[in-house]
Amino acid sequence: MSLIHDLETLERTVLQTDPGFRSIDREDLDRHIGEARQDALADAKDAFLLSLMRLMALPRNGHTRLIPNTAISVLPFRFANIGTDVRLLAAPSGPAGAVGGALISINGIPLGEIERAAETVLAGTPQRRRVIGPILFAWPGALVGLGVWSGSGTLEYGIRNDAGRISALVPDMANRVPGSALYPRNEHGKADASWSPESFLEVWDYGQRGLLMALPSFLDPDETDLSKAIAKAASLARSRPHAPLLLDVRGNTGGDFLRTMPLIDAISGGAEDRRVGVLVDKFTFSAAIVFVALLKHRLGTRLELIGEEMGDGLTFFAEGGTIDLSSGAVVRYSSALHDWAGGRIDDTTPTEIAEKIVPVGSLELDRSWTGHPDDDASRDRLCREVLDSLNS
Question: Based on the domain organization, do 103 and 18 belong to the same domain?
């Protein structure tokens, strides 16, 4: 299969199906298609993938995007956006203290400039772009396309450790690994790229303070384990109707929010004085955002939102599907409107979702907090503080 075939597949399937493209100016759309066609005819795979990323990013809808991870090779560095910094989470070697440090430059170009150059190839909200963008910094082909590297010679990464010392990390350009080995399709921000939740529910009982329930994912291909976990969580919530609850959906990239409704019902059906906190971060997406929105709609001021801005807004296109391209990349496209801000539906919204959609308005943080996804001790300290405040 050729790169041209991949482009034609997108034109025929995605551009005709995804409602996000309805608002894109035809001239702008044709220009992006033309650029991708030129790269395909030149058999310039990396440039072609970047062109498709720009094309798919036009609707600024994060559920619609080209995912290059399985089609590219990257330097063996795992970068992720933690808090306000892009951190080096894993590397085979380098200066002492480099792993864990913040990326500040590549080839002397400040990271902020590179991020601005990358905005056009990254889909979704600014927060989603912070989540999916770090793969570009380890992908030599992308660094060429962004004007950071000429394609010959080496690269030099400026890494700042927590003490403020800056060191240079110069990789062996011949040492590359598959992009999917270090960058998962659903980015969670943990150091181990292959991490996946061991269960759909973890519970910590803080006695009179209340309960912490961690819900790391709502995606269950087997369609049984998530339902069992939600049933258990709902039973716990009902058994302690007055106890404050803290729910951790950081790193939850979504799944099926409809299957979480029993827990939402159990929480909102508790005592009128029950207060609930929810931990969120930039790695909270899709169905997990809907879960939070429904709780906010039912609980109002009794719900406290803690953490950082989530990965998407409340109005987006979703559903749809994925297409595996012959280049090795994956295209994610959408087919249905979700408007949890204004409560709107249209002819694309599935009936079972339309029945649940409510106008939430916005989800403003009540308390800002940024914790490393792997730092359980920091979360434990926060949980005790929050549960104490929910009890007051």
Answer: no
User: How large is the C-alpha radius of gyration of the chain?
Assistant: 22
CA angle 133, 251, 136 (to 5 degrees): 10
User: Domain check: are 161 and 250 in the same one?
Assistant: no
Specify the number of domains making up the chain.
3
- φ/ψ of 345, rounded to 5, equals -135, 165
Q: Which residue would you say has higher pLDDT here, 340 or 1?
A: 340
- Domain of residue 27 covers 3-61
Q: What percent of the chain has pLDDT over 70?
A: 100
Report how far residue 74's alpha carbon sits from residue 352's, in angstroms, rounded to the nearest whole number: 41
**Quick check: helix, strand or coil at residue 381?**
helix
The residue with tokens 């912490």 is 212
- Asked if residue 117 has pLDDT above 80, the reply is yes
Counts of helices then strands in the chain (DSSP H, E): 14, 19
- pLDDT tens digits for range 124-148: 999 999 999 999 999 999 999 999 9
Q: What CA–CA distance (Å, rounded) separates 275 from 263? A: 15
**pLDDT tens column, 269-324:** 988 989 999 999 999 999 999 999 999 999 999 999 999 999 999 999 999 999 99
Q: Indicate the SS3 state at residue 152.
A: coil
Q: What are the residues whose beta carbons fall under 8 Å from the beta carbon of 19, sequence distance 6 or more?
A: 317, 334, 335, 336, 337, 348
76 in the same domain as 49: no
Kindly report the pTM of this predicted structure.
0.93
Helices 261-268 + 286-299 axis angle, to 10: 20
- Give the C-alpha distances (Å, rounded to integers) separating 336 from 17, 82, 289, 320, 386: 10, 31, 16, 7, 37
Other beta carbons within 10 Å of 56 = 26
CB burial readout 6-28, b (16+ within 10 A) else e: bbebbeeebbeebbbbeeeeeee
17's tokens: 């199906």
Q: Is residue 256 part of a domain?
A: yes
* Same domain for 286 and 148: no
Token pair belonging to 225: 């384990």
The answer for residues whose C-beta is within 8 angstroms of residue 358's C-beta and 6 or more apart is 293, 294, 297, 340, 343
- Rounded mean pLDDT, 340-358: 93
CA–CA separation, 55 vs 33, rounded Å? 7
